[in-house]
Amino acid sequence: xxxxxxxxxxxxxxxxxxxxxxxxxxxxxxxxxxxxxxxxxxxxxxxxxxxxxxxxxxxxxxxxxxxxxxxxxxxxxxxxxxxxxxxxxxxxxxxxxxxxxxxxxxxxxxxxxxxxxxxxxxxxxxxxxxxxxxxxxxxxxxxxxxxxxxxxxxxxxxxxxxxxxxxxxxxxxxxxxxxxxxxxxxxxxxxxxxxxxxxxxxxxxxxxxxxxxxxxxxxxxxxxxxxxxxxxxxxxxxxxxxxxxxxxxxxxxxxxxxxxxxxxxxxxxxxxxxxxxxxxxxxxxxxxxxxxxxxxxxxxxxxxxxxxxxxxxxxxxxxxxxxxxxxxxxxxxxxxxxxxxxxxxxxxxxxxxxxxxxxxxxxxxxxxxxxxxxx
Length: 375
What we know:
Elements: E1 2-6, H1 13-22, E2 26-31, H2 35-40, E3 48-50, H3 52-64, H4 70-88, E4 94-98, H5 104-113, E5 116-120, H6 126-133, H7 146-158, E6 161-164, H8 167-174, E7 183-185, E8 198-199, E9 207-211, H9 220-227, E10 233-237, E11 251-253, H10 259-266, E12 271-274, H11 283-290, E13 295-298, H12 303-309, E14 316-319, H13 324-339, E15 344-345, H14 357-373
Parallel strand pairs: 1-2, 1-4, 2-3, 4-5, 5-6, 6-7, 9-10, 9-12, 10-11, 12-13, 13-14
Antiparallel strand pairs: 8-15
């Protein structure tokens, strides 16, 4: 198949592009990710279609602009990338695009080439996401702009298929009457070579790690309450967003850590905790499991979908969001599981290949072929 993939940044679709190309498809990856950067993640040069020259001023402005400008810059950047992709689009049988981004590019692909449209929606239905985020105390409003709501809803109506990563995302669509036949659920993968099994750490104090932006969306305020006063140590690896860093003796924030160095952080901890209030399927969870760490997560992170892949699903402890007591109890269960580990921590076992990006790409290819056969 001739496959166009349209995105702004790398996200998971660069890995998808690489895998579909490896399966023999003619892939074109349209984004402002540089050719050199894309190549570092294994994308063949022939697949790369640069949107960076035209988008560069806005990308730079997005990183430097005051917060008051953020929404305006985001809108302009989305329209620019979408328009550039539409103008550069080559003949394709399928367009895979990020939901909310692809409007003109999706219309062009369908009208000019008769292509099927697959939208990538990594989070819950936009109205569910907006409702959850705006219920969080202290969250800036609107948490989701009306511009994004309109583009998302247009995409849901217009797409042939919406690709989603987890059960809870699927439920958020079905609850709003979305046809099940238009949903393709496929859990994300992980770079198994970058995140190999790690040796059990010899920690005198049970140690937890959380990776990601320290934010309200990811439930970091709940996490801080859960670990307060407990005989544990918590390491944070990631940027500081809209949640306050706790002033706790047992807390350490290391700031942004490159993906290539995250496994070294994971190797220092006994368990991984991810208390998000809303997140389709957080990639760091698959990374932590690949490194052999028990996982504590909420039922809005996609952790349950990863548990289904494991030989022993009990390595994943799932709790409700917004509940510090439940999270604390879940952490205790995970640390008890961690205490049973010895030597090299390999909890994936024979299920390891199913968590790979290759397996993700193979499932995606099968889905595309199935939808194509059904018209």
